[in-house]
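Much of the work behind modern protein science is quiet bookkeeping, done one molecule at a time. The protein below has been through that process, and both of its lines are reproduced in full.
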Amino acid sequence: MSIVPSLFGGRRSNIFDPFSLDIWDPFKDFPISSSSAVSRETSALVNARVDWKETPEAHVFKADLPGIKKEEVKVEVEDGNILQITGQRNVEKEDKNDKWHRVERSSGKFTRRFRLPENAKMDHVKAAMENGVLTITVPKEEVKKPDVKSIEISG
């Protein structure tokens, strides 16, 4: 006999099994429902995943935004060195006759902000959207190599 079911409400789940679908929800009895606007907006924010890599020539951002059109996304530069990505994933229209079994896709507004280093050329930012992936390229200023003059040693 296992002690796990008695700790987690008598359900037959294995908390050590990462593939178990019967997951304990510590917030299930909280008064805020999971369909509230706050949780949907937070969920959309979490789902705007962004990778940021730096190459010798530029800072490159890639954001996964499946199902979002480029017209629904804004890329802006604030305060000279802050890159901001905002957008909105609209809620799917519901038919009264539909019976939902699972809702995992999020909807709502999302915002991601990144403070860029001083070497970023914010006047030359380029953005492109292809197959649900937003790619933003921020070129870097060329690093001036110090002018080195070789001095001959006599003696």
Q: What stands out?
A: The chain has two helices and seven strands. Residues 14 and 20 are 7 Å apart (CA to CA). The mean pLDDT is 77. Residues 37-47 form the longest helix (11 residues).
